[in-house]
Design goal:
The chain has helices at residues 19-25, 65-69, 72-88, and strands at 7-10, 30-35, 41-46, 49-54, 59-64. It has one domain. The protein starts with 6 loop residues before the first strand and ends in an 11-residue tail after the last helix. By secondary structure, it is an alpha+beta fold. Strands 1-5-4-3-2 form a five-stranded antiparallel beta sheet. A hairpin with a 2-residue loop joins β3 (41-46) and β4 (49-54). It is elongated, with a radius of gyration of 16 Å.
Length: 99
């Protein structure tokens, strides 16, 4: 029986999976894909995990185990939709004279 799997989220672009998580889940063959208008979202799929990182937002998420690994596609879709929405909104923090 395998140990409990899960979803680990890191909210800083400087945060990363622990050494133990990398050694346990992020090994062997992998498939890497980039998404977004500037390739800012990266999905890396391993045998036992999927790692999703959004460089523009600084978010990293490690999905482990077969059940949680399937959730990566929903999260990827959500991230892409969020990027499209942000691109369509004006920058609320710019001064009126800067527009």
């Amino acid at each position: 029986m395998r140990a409990a799997m899960g979803v680990f989220q890191y909210d800083s672009k400087y945060a990363a999976p622990t050494r133990e998580q990398r050694e346990r889940y992020m090994r062997g063959e992998r498939e890497e894909q980039t998404f977004g208008s500037e390739g800012e979202i990266t999905l890396v799929v391993y045998d036992e995990a999927a790692y999703l990182k959004d460089d523009s937002e600084g978010v990293r998420i490690l999905f482990t185990g077969a059940k949680d690994k399937q959730k990566v596609h929903d999260e990827l879709r959500r991230m892409l939709e969020e990027h499209v929405q942000k691109a369509g909104r004006p920058d609320e923090f710019r001064a009126a004279g800067d527009r």
